[in-house]
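Table S2 (text version). Query chain:
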Amino acid sequence: MAAVDLEQYVQRKRRGAREYFYFRVVKEGKETRLPLPHPFDPGYRAAYDAAHIAVFGISPNEFESPTAITALIRQHKDSERYRRLKPDSRRHRDYGLALMLERWGQFDTTAIRPVHVQAVYDSLSDRPATANRRLAEISAVFGWGRPRGFVDANPCIGVEKITESTPREPWPDDALATLMDQGQPHIVRPALVAAYTGQRRGDLLHGFSDSVIRGGVWYVVQGKTGSHVPIPLHPVVLAIADTERATRRAAGVVDPRRPLLVNSLGEPWTSSGFAASWRKELIRLKLRPHRNEDYGPDDFQPTFHGLRRTSATLIATTVARNPDLFGGIGRVKSMLGHLSESMAAHYARRAEAEHMNTETMLLFPQIGNTGA
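Corresponding structure-token output:
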């Protein structure tokens, strides 16, 4: 067999009389290994170049500007900021990085302007939630790169966003009662915890564990904002946690980092698994149609995030009865971990208006004969 001079990063493996070749790189203790044809194979060069681009973002021997998009992506993925992302947040960050590489991989960061970001955003306009999430991730990457000399200004600032087609309004009482009274336990438990804590779905499914609960307080680090929020747990939530602990003790499971909210098989939820089960349960309970197109113009459209809005509205309504006693919008902001006063004030203003209007009705004299 003829000798083969292997290029950088190429690894040869023998199994019996056969040879196998891989593009192998180890970075930060993590191995990436991509299969290659035999170096004598006519498709080898294209496969090697493709593997090099997949791992490093550039072709072999290609000159790379210090401020290239590929350099920004590679350095960001090597950063402590990226490594500290939670698994679900890292997955979404990777989607944003992949989109940047696909659309702008051959350009320098200094060439990207708001008009280019707007074009990418508009190309996703048929999926508003996806468009907004990708924009947020891309903006975070450019924001990370700005003090490191990649750009002078974040090109995502000023991009015109579209409104999501699915509203996230608070749940009305009748719909909430249907879910709580008739829903399956593995769906109702996350919904109850959401309603009583006001936290986001990802934090509930992946971050609600014994390792961050002390003295009846859940010390949550919000995946979206990074805010550290202490949440005193309502007795209903504590009972849910105790029930899960009892089940684990019976099964001999000891892992304080294991999420307390689990699926019908007793396993931690995945984001996609919960989304599918949640949708299926809402259809079963006749809280939503099979297709979004079948919603009527005035129909309530239930979302899990709407439970966070429900929690905020309930808190704000109570606060509105006596802002001086209950703390005003500061209580809403503190409980939900909102970073801006404006979002907390939104709920407070709405609740104050409803409370004031209710009291105003009592000021009207009786008009006409009610027939009573």
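Notes on Table S2: Residues 319-329, 331-341, 350-372 have pLDDT under 50 and may be disordered. The beta strands are 10-15, 18-27, 30-36, 213-214, 217-221, 228-232.
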